[in-house]
UniProtKB/TrEMBL annotation, chain A:
Assigned protein family: Belongs to the complex I 30 kDa subunit family.
Molecular function terms from GO: NADH dehydrogenase (ubiquinone) activity
Record's protein name: NADH/F420H2 dehydrogenase subunit C
InterPro entries: NADH_quin_OxRdtase_su_C/D-like, NADH_UbQ_OxRdtase_30kDa_su
Organism name: Seonamhaeicola aphaedonensis
Organismal lineage: Bacteria, Pseudomonadati, Bacteroidota, Flavobacteriia, Flavobacteriales
Record-annotated NADH:ubiquinone oxidoreductase 30kDa subunit domain positions: 56-170
TrEMBL record, chain B:
Pfam families named in the record: Complex1_49kDa
Class in the EC hierarchy, top level: translocase
GO CC field: plasma membrane
Location(s) in or outside the cell: Cell membrane
Taxonomic classification: Bacteria, Pseudomonadati, Bacteroidota, Flavobacteriia, Flavobacteriales
Gene: nuoD
Protein name: NADH-quinone oxidoreductase subunit D
EC number of this enzyme: 7.1.1.-
Membrane topology field: Peripheral membrane protein
Catalytic reaction equation(s): a quinone + NADH + 5 H(+)(in) = a quinol + NAD(+) + 4 H(+)(out)
Task of the protein: NDH-1 shuttles electrons from NADH, via FMN and iron-sulfur (Fe-S) centers, to quinones in the respiratory chain. The immediate electron acceptor for the enzyme in this species is believed to be a menaquinone. Couples the redox reaction to proton translocation (for every two electrons transferred, four hydrogen ions are translocated across the cytoplasmic membrane), and thus conserves the redox energy in a proton gradient.
Start and end residues of each NADH-quinone oxidoreductase subunit D domain: 129-298, 299-374
TrEMBL record, chain C:
Species whose genome carries this gene: Seonamhaeicola aphaedonensis
Catalytic function, reaction form: a quinone + NADH + 5 H(+)(in) = a quinol + NAD(+) + 4 H(+)(out)
Root EC class: translocase
Keywords carried by this UniProt record: Cell membrane, Membrane, NAD, Quinone, Translocase, Transmembrane, Transmembrane helix, Ubiquinone
Superkingdom of the organism of origin: Bacteria
Membrane topology type: Multi-pass membrane protein
Primary location group: membrane
Any one of the GO BP annotations: aerobic respiration
EC number: 7.1.1.-
Encoding gene (name): nuoH
Identification of the protein by name: NADH-quinone oxidoreductase subunit H
Assembly and oligomerization: NDH-1 is composed of 14 different subunits. Subunits NuoA, H, J, K, L, M, N constitute the membrane sector of the complex.
NCBIfam families from the UniProt entry: PRK06076.1-2 (NF004741)
Length: 179, 374, 352
């Protein structure tokens, strides 16, 4: 599926109530039933100049959205090939790179939070098991915690390590040489 | 009644922990595994990483793009050329540079030679892990020939740094083509020798067949890639699906095995040697003339945006993810290393087996610890 | 009546001192002689193994110390002697220190029985084979003690594997030798050799003897804990197995014992299957001292066979090891004894 087709399909999952579309897909009705009304602000397509389709999701909607990307037969994103923690300065977030092994299309899902003290997202390791390690890595370097993660502890660094090294505001006068 | 109860109590088996690594012959470096064991049977494998973590991703944030290339061959040092290539491709794609065909072909040839060298080493170590020490020297004999070729062309044997953004650091050595051809001819007689020494051995087959099984669904879910995934029948060769450099000009088969056990993964790598040889043969006579490098600015500044490039290293899919803000350094650089994801499946594969099975399974994962730790 | 080496030394000493003093002095002299010979033999076996390994592995091997590296292992031994003896905390010190001696003593004790020539045999006991099997099982106690007392889990796993392995494979060693005893009718080694003057036992007993020999070599390799049965050390799994925590000379004892045990297994096979010091077709019967040459030639050939195993085969897994013994070797062995008994009963043996 091309990026454009994906974009149309995914947009259709989150119908904007202001512009109610006539052809509402069936699976949306099922998925949305539990979550009363879907907020149109939950989803946003962003332009990053990359070859992939970029989607920005609100944290509270993350797990449901990811689950849908995996289980929907049209998207079928069953391969999470990259999970990156990013410090955007004001916000902390995660970038998920997904690929479908059936359709061979890709998507990039992003999630951000402005809470730098205690950033928390839902874990996706029940959807893709590889996320378990990658989320531990992100926790280790960015201090982002994940709900429902089975074994969230430091992976690379020692448990008593102070701070989260890959954050932009991390200071280590001794070990870091900044030119 | 009472007596038999005490008797049962005194003979109660107990799980215990054993600390495999960071200094252990089978972990190939400084990987530490916390094993929970009941007798010889493994109940849980918990990797503890970070013993060789150098924070390459953080270092990248302060380095220029030319410098970053040099850091990457310290990750997966056995596929150093392919790592370099990944970064260079990302930068070139971001700059929309037109790379000469000569560079593409040479990169692909050296990339495949690197893959063969890596698989040779893996084969030697695989034999050693299951107890056949002799394989190591056979693997190294052939690997040395490749390293000699590399040394002649780019001056280094392991961490080559032959790629720069925009092309290659130097042109190939005049002897290069002849020596590669010699090597291909030599190595074609040696792969059957590998099979004679190890593959056909009944003990080896008993040790590996049905051991450490990873199903296709699990392989995808664990994000496993490379020969490990292809041993589970999961078609994932980046060279096929996202061809880079000159790989779209050659024909080769993606090696797939359905069983998903240790022997299948072993076979995938052995058969990949033939495919790599075939790729080299197709290209070695057709290296186009031209520049070995296109001019780039001394200070490379990537446009604002995000760039992702994946390549197939000897261990699997290496992803390079650059978030650029338009400065001379990346804002965030992430390496999706194949070993890290492959390692995450180890617990799933090893539980229920013996210690010997764990070692055999780990050998076919072909872990390079600096690649996992970065 | 041929004179054994003990007796000739005793008679030589008798001219110098009283009878009982000469008796004890002879024992000490013979013991020291054997100790010396086999310390050196052990070291050269190590060198041999290293050179053979190198040959298999496209290398040269040690060739710098002395002519063709002949003094290399001597230098290694000197280094080991001078090394610090380390140990672990909370190890059972007494057992930990005792273990290497169990292993080396059991290996050396068995050597006294080996008939190098008609004369060169220190101890010709009438239950020779039985004694050898009994003695060789003591070694495993040393390994178990060493692994258990050194307070290391890798060592413990190695020791437990060793216990399992040795107890299992001793059955096969014993039964395959028993098969041959049916032919000789005696456990005494000198008589076993005597019987073979009418053809080596492997020829006399033809098919069942060859089967017994193959089982013996497999089980013997397993009993010396060498590859492909080196579960006990299994360096890619257990680091160094039971001797992980040993250093210096204590480690060297374990190491030497392994080689002497290998020599022993080959020597017993030579004695029981290949006519010990007898020359092929009696070609050098008139020169008795050449027996040493024939004995060593045959033994070293078998030692080479065991080294060949080691540098070619991968290692078995621990459960496969037991499957091999209890499901294959043991039943084959039992059937083989019956076949051999039938052959002896019907007198179907091949005599030259």
């Amino acid at each position: 599926m091309t990026n454009e087709a994906l974009r149309i399909l995914i947009s259709s999952w989150f119908p904007n109530p202001e512009f109610e579309t006539k052809s509402e897909p069936v699976e949306v009705a099922e998925g949305a039933a539990s979550k009363a009304i879907i907020n149109p602000n939950l989803l946003e397509f962003t332009e990053e100049g990359s070859q992939f389709l970029n989607v920005l999701v609100k944290p509270e909607n993350l797990h449901e959205f990811m689950n849908k990307l995996k289980t929907n037969s049209d998207t079928c994103f069953d391969y999470l090939f990259c999970l990156t923690g990013v410090d955007w300065g004001a916000e902390l977030g995660i970038v998920y790179h997904l690929e479908s092994t059936q359709h061979r299309h890709n998507i990039v899902v992003k999630v951000k939070t402005e809470d730098r003290e205690n950033p928390t997202f839902d874990s996706v390791c029940d959807i893709w098991r590889t996320a378990e390690f990658h989320e531990r890595e992100v926790f280790d370097f960015f201090g982002i915690t994940f709900n429902n993660h089975p074994n969230l502890k430091r992976l690379f660094l020692t448990p008593e390590w102070d701070g989260f090294p890959l954050r932009k505001d991390y200071v280590d006068e001794i070990n870091m040489v900044i030119k | 009644m009472q007596e038999s109860a005490t008797l049962n109590n005194s003979f109660k088996s107990e799980e215990y922990f054993i600390n495999m690594g960071p200094q252990h012959p089978a972990t190939h470096g400084v990987l530490r595994l916390l094993l929970t064991i009941d007798g010889e049977i493994i109940k849980k494998v918990e990797p503890d990483l970070g013993y060789i973590h150098r924070s390459i991703e953080k270092m990248c944030e302060r380095d220029s793009y030319q410098q970053i290339v040099h850091l990457t061959d310290r990750m997966d040092y056995l596929s150093s050329h392919i790592n370099n290539e990944a970064v260079c491709l990302t930068v070139e794609n971001a700059l929309e540079l037109e790379i000469p065909d000569r560079v593409k072909v040479i990169r692909t040839i050296i990339g495949e030679l690197t893959r063969i060298a890596s698989h040779c080493l893996w084969w030697g170590v695989m034999g050693m892990d299951v107890g056949a020490l002799t394989t190591y020297f056979y693997g190294f004999r052939d690997r040395e020939m490749i390293n000699d070729i590399f040394e002649e062309t780019c001056g280094a044997r392991l961490t080559m740094n032959y790629n720069v953004p925009g092309g290659l650091m130097w042109d190939i050595h005049p002897n290069f083509i002849k020596r590669v051809k010699d090597f291909v001819a030599h190595f074609k007689t040696k792969i059957p020798e590998y099979n004679k020494l190890l593959t056909g051995n009944i003990i080896f087959q008993k040790r590996t067949k049905g051991v450490g099984v990873l199903s296709k669904e699990d392989a995808i879910s664990f994000g496993v890639s490379g020969p490990v995934a292809r041993g589970s029948g999961y078609s994932c060769d980046v060279r096929k699906y996202h061809p880079y450099s000159a790989l779209d000009k050659v024909t080769f088969n993606e090696v797939l095995e359905a069983d998903g056990d240790t022997f299948a993964r072993y076979n995938v790598r052995i058969r990949e040697l033939w495919e790599s040889l075939s790729i080299i043969e197709q290209l070695i006579d057709n290296i186009p003339d031209g520049e070995h490098r296109v001019k780039t600015n001394a200070v490379i500044k990537l446009p604002k945006g995000e760039f992702y490039q994946k390549v197939e290293t000897a261990r699997g899919e290496l992803g390079v993810y650059i978030i650029s803000t338009g400065t001379k350094n990346p804002y965030r650089m992430k390496f999706r290393s194949p070993g890290f994801s492959n390692l995450s499946a180890l617990n799933h594969m090893a539980v229920g087996g013996k210690i010997g099975d764990l070692v055999a399974t780990m050998a076919t994962l072909d872990l390079v610890i600096p690649d996992i730790d970065r | 009546m041929p004179l054994s080496i003990t007796k000739s030394i005793q008679e030589m000493l008798l001219s110098m001192m009283s009878e009982s003093a000469a008796y004890y002095a002879a024992m000490v002299v013979v013991a020291l002689l054997y100790l010396g010979i086999f310390a050196i033999a052990g070291l050269f076996l190590v060198l041999l193994e290293r050179r053979i390994a190198a040959w298999f592995q496209l290398r040269i091997g040690p060739n710098r110390v002395g002519f063709q590296g002949l003094l290399q292992t001597m230098a290694d031994a000197l280094k080991l002697v001078s090394k610090e003896l380390t140990g672990t905390d909370r190890a059972d010190k007494f057992l930990y220190n005792l273990a290497p001696y169990f292993v080396i003593i059991s290996a050396l004790m068995a050597l006294g029985l080996i008939p190098f020539t008609k004369e060169f045999q220190a101890f010709d006991i009438n239950i020779g084979i039985f004694f050898l099997i009994a003695i060789s099982s003591i070694g495993v106690i040393g390994i178990l003690l060493g692994g258990w007392a050194s307070n290391n889990k890798f060592a413990l796993i190695g020791a437990m594997r060793s216990g399992v392995q040795t107890i299992s494979y001793e059955l096969s060693v014993g039964l395959s030798l028993l098969t041959m005893i049916l032919l000789t009718g005696s456990l005494q080694l000198s008589e076993i050799v005597e019987v073979q003057k009418g053809g080596w036992l492997i020829v006399q007993g033809h098919i069942p003897a060859i089967i017994a020999f193959m089982i013996y070599m497999i089980a013997g390799t397993a009993e010396t804990n060498r590859a492909p049965f080196d579960m006990v050390e299994a360096e890619s799994e257990l680091g160094a197995g039971f001797h992980t925590e040993y250093s210096g000379m204590k480690f060297a004892y374990f190491f030497l014992a392994e080689f002497i045990n290998m020599f022993l297994i080959a020597a017993i096979a030579t004695t029981v299957f290949f006519g010990a010091w007898l020359s092929p077709f009696g070609i050098t019967e008139s020169i008795p001292w050449l027996g040493v040459f024939w004995f060593l030639a045959k033994t070293l050939l078998l030692v080479f066979l065991m080294m060949w195993f080691r540098w070619t085969f991968p290692r078995l897994r621990v459960d496969q090891l037991l499957t091999l013994e209890w499901k294959y070797l043991l039943p084959i062995n039992l059937v083989n004894i019956v076949v051999m008994a039938f052959i002896v009963w019907q007198n179907l043996i091949i005599q030259i």
